[in-house]
Design goal:
With 175 residues, the protein is α/β, with parallel strands linked by helices. It is built from seven helices and five strands. The protein has one domain: Carbonic anhydrase (Beta-carbonic Anhydrase, Chain A, 3-Layer(aba) Sandwich), CATH 3.40.1050. The protein is 39% helix and 18% strand. The structure holds zinc ion.
């Protein structure tokens, strides 16, 4: 961890007034969005989401491929333990996750001195290649969640694309 964070925190503690936000999201909402650094403050701000309002789940590409992987675990916790009844899958324009290729990442790993056998044993193609455009990727994640055998039928799953330049949210489908 960078010392910068500890320094920033000392400044914060000297000036901030802590709010007592609820652990259970007030809006009954979970948002799945991308890890893109541009969205850290912008996305919740643009959607009117404040601390305590929604469970925020982020990964590379706002995409769920593995129905029993880590991101889906977070969704299940949100539904069963946090009372979430609405899930918003929000892809975004100019997403870096869609520009990364498996071959490119393997080259970057080699250049950083990673053992070739370790690189070959990792299923990099499986999780990197074939990320679709934001609309298609969002819709396939919406379908995966809404059709998931562990997701109850009264949970609403909606898909959106967020424009990182204009800040506009566009709905692209509902279930
Ligand atoms: Zn992204």
């Amino acid at each position: 961890m960078s010392d910068r964070l500890l320094e920033n925190n000392r400044v914060f503690l000297g000036s901030a007034e802590m709010e007592d936000a609820p652990k259970v999201p007030r809006m009954g909402l979970a948002v799945i969005s991308c890890m893109d650094a541009r969205l850290t403050r912008l996305l919740p701000w643009a959607l009117g989401i404040r601390d305590g309002d929604a469970a925020m789940i982020r990964n590379s590409g706002a995409s769920i491929r593995d129905p029993y992987g880590d991101t889906m675990h977070s969704v299940l916790i949100a539904v069963y333990e946090l009372g979430v009844t609405e899930i918003a899958v929000i892809g975004h324009t100019d997403c870096g996750a869609r520009k990364v290729t498996a071959d490119g990442m393997r080259e970057h790993m080699k250049a950083r001195g990673i053992d070739e056998a370790a690189i070959e044993s990792a299923d990099i193609d499986g999780w990197l290649n074939g990320l679709a455009g934001p609309k298609d990727e969002v819709m396939s994640t919406v379908r995966l969640i809404s059709g998931h055998p562990l997701i109850p039928s009264d949970v609403a799953v909606r898909g959106y694309v967020f424009d990182t330049r204009s800040g506009r949210l566009t709905a692209i489908g509902a279930s």
